[in-house]
Amino acid sequence: MKTPVLFSLIFLFSLSALQAQSQNEFFEKQLKYSHDTENWYPSLSVAVDGLTAEQANWKDDSENHSIGQLLSHLTFWNGRLLESMQGGTPPNFNGNNDETFDAFDEVGLELQIQDLDSIMTAMEKKTAEMTPKEIEGWGETLANIASHNAYHIGQIVFIRKQNGWWR
């Protein structure tokens, strides 16, 4: 019962905030909150700060994903969105979402984080530059990717807390 009320309050607050600022500013802030600006929850940059490759590859005995797999998944979906926002055509996707979690390489942790950081920065910049008509067409998708990012950041934080790797 508390969760729907909390989401309703966040939604109402977000709507009132949207009226006081441009849609570009609103969506850019939502993207930044999941990227590098800590607000109601840790941003991605906070969630991965000090993360080691060993920690990134840790998995429990269930079918849960590792932090590295979550980073790979976020890179995949944010990268596809950025490609589309820039007018490009993302690579073909066969629809098997499980495959988006499998591209993590232990040696490439820093590169993975840098790649995702670059993608998210470029999405924020593109969002800020959009015309009102463009932002109108992208608004729902931008809100969804920001929520998607926040969801998986929560998983990353949970794994780190569960293992005593959190701040």
UniProtKB/TrEMBL annotation:
Keywords: Signal. This is DinB family protein. Residues 1-22 form the signal peptide. Residues 44-156 form the DinB-like domain. It comes from Algoriphagus namhaensis. The keyword Signal applies. Gene3D superfamilies: dinb family like domain. The keyword Signal applies.
